[in-house]
Amino acid sequence: MNDLTTVVETARAAFELAHTPAELENSKALFLGKSGRITEMMKGLAALSVEEKKSRGAAINLAKQGIEAALTARRQALADNELQAQLQAEALDVTLPGRQRGTGGLHPVSLTLERIEAIFGSMGFEVAQGPEIESDWFNFTALNTPEDHPARSMHDTFYVEGGSEQAPNLLRTHTSPMQIRHAVQHVKKHRAAAADSTAEGALFSGAMPEIRVIAPGRTYRVDSDATHSPMFHQCEGLWVGENVSFKDLKFVFTDFCRTFFENPDLVLRFRPSFFPFTEPSAEIDIQFPSGPLAGRWLEVAGSGQVHPNVIRNMGLDPERYIGFAFGMGPDRLTMLRYGVNDLRLFFDGDIRFLSQFR
Ligand code: DAH
Question: Using an 8 Å Cβ cutoff, are 341 and 207 in contact?
Answer without folding.
Answer: no
